[in-house]
């Protein structure tokens, strides 16, 4: 795209690779240079923590604030009761109010690390759409809002179409979701003069609906902007690892494991990830991304340190790097490794090494653990592990043992 932005925010988004689509680049750019503007991203409270898949959009809100504008983190206390059907093959399990509130409390901890909340013009706001959705009168809502939606058009959106094309059921409850999300934008514009909704490119249809609804009902000009749906260079969805989701809450995933996730970035992704997930200057991102051979490892450590420092603080990043050096370079044990503590009752007369590998999270099943051993991918205290029938008893755990899967994944096992 050849558009040359005038505002710092759009310029930053373009240079660093955040932009997939915008409903009106020129209009949004003009609005952003005319004064402080308010923008939001919505987050449904479906888990107790946000994960790495959310980090791209959190960084976008952070840049919005750093360039002088006001971000809103909108918690979906209302919409979570319905469930977003976008690109899902089945209906989301419905959560109760207590679980939704607990999830929102867990997610708030993460936002506070990236955004500054308060009362100044560009201070972030934390809102909950239950505030206006919970009290809606169904008949009034149908008459005032529902009449602006064409079912023909809603059926044409990719998120709905893909579900119907596969002849998978789409409940009326879920079909309402896009109307509720559009209504959120209208309400945020009415209440807080919010002019921009941002989100991943899978939200494009929902965002466009909100832009249209706000124009039709109150004739206000608002905008939508999306980020690319991010996949790693080997085609996997960003944020999915062998061990499951990469959570952002420290009590669900240790800072060391978070650091390790970034340290294990594929060579081809380093430059792109530095631009998206750190605040290093662009030319430095380019320089580090161009490193090849063993030099690229230095760039990966910088990436891991920068991203971990933003979330968990510089001290946690430094500790994680020190632990990694101790483990990898000196073959040491390191205090911060994921640790499995077995009670004497659990251990009994002994436990097979295959069971211990599964329990430690280095393999998902006994079958996978046996394959790891058979293919010489497992090590015990840095020595090749070749006997899948090995039994570990209390004597073997007199001091902690270190298990390794491949070169980069390790765990400690100790007796509690």
UniProtKB/TrEMBL annotation:
InterPro entries referenced in this protein's UniProt entry, alphabetically: aa-tRNA-synth_Ic (IPR002305), Rossmann-like_a/b/a_fold (IPR014729), S4_RNA-bd_sf (IPR036986), Tyr-tRNA-ligase (IPR002307), Tyr-tRNA-ligase_bac-type (IPR024088), Tyr-tRNA-ligase_bac_1 (IPR024107)
Keyword Ligase: yes
Residues that coordinate or bind L-tyrosine: 40, 177, 181
Subcellular location field: Cytoplasm
Enzyme class name: ligase
Family annotation (PROSITE patterns): S4
Signal peptide limits: none
Catalytic activity, EC: 6.1.1.1
UniProt function note: Catalyzes the attachment of tyrosine to tRNA(Tyr) in a two-step reaction: tyrosine is first activated by ATP to form Tyr-AMP and then transferred to the acceptor end of tRNA(Tyr).
Family of the protein in this entry: Belongs to the class-I aminoacyl-tRNA synthetase family. TyrS type 1 subfamily.
Protein name from the UniProt record: Tyrosine--tRNA ligase
This protein's encoding gene: tyrS
